[in-house]
């Protein structure tokens, strides 16, 4: 392969890679949410876990990982931090290895307090991305969920 051909491949990846653009976009958007939630000492990734726990009642780690597309170690690390802060608690289970968890009253109060900050971040993100992009994102996630359900 000639140097010109390799350079053309490199330029194509640099100009067109969807993965790199989504990762960059993810960092920018996450920073907006985290900035809004910072006064509550909460990150948007943690808020999503708290919301999942609130919706599930008793949250089973594998179900949360599947729902939020997280790996087990990431969830585990976040749950440990949130348990230490009193936002989550382990639910006794027959199989002690599974460690299901639930939102505590303190965690529920935190979610209530966080909602206005989340709403403001949501407004900012919609302004940055545009409503059309957000709708396309929602449709893409719907297709992904439908595809996962089909397997």
Write the layout of secondary structure elements.
Elements lengths: L2 H14 L1 H20 L6 H13 L4 H8 L3 H13 L3 E3 L10 E3 L1 H25 L1 H20 L1
Antiparallel strand pairs: 1-2
Care to give the gist of this entry?
Helix content is 75%, strand content 4%. The protein has 151 residues and is mainly α.
Short key terms for the protein model shown above:
Arc Repressor Mutant, subunit A, 2 strands, single chain, mainly alpha, two-stranded antiparallel sheet, 151 residues
**Count of spatially separate domains:** 1
Kindly report the CATH topology: Arc Repressor Mutant, subunit A
Order of helix and strand elements from N to C terminus:
HHHHHEEHH
What fraction of residues sit in β-strands?
under 5%
Q: Would you kindly provide a written description of the structure presented here, covering whatever features stand out?
A:
- The chain has 7 helices and 2 strands, in the order αααααββαα.
- With 151 residues, it is mainly α.
- It has a single domain (3-150), classed as Arc Repressor Mutant, subunit A, CATH 1.10.10.
- Helix 2 (18-37) crosses helix 6 and helix 3 (44-56) packs across helix 6.
- It is globular, with a radius of gyration of 19 Å.
- The N and C termini lie far apart (40 Å).
- The mean pLDDT is 92.
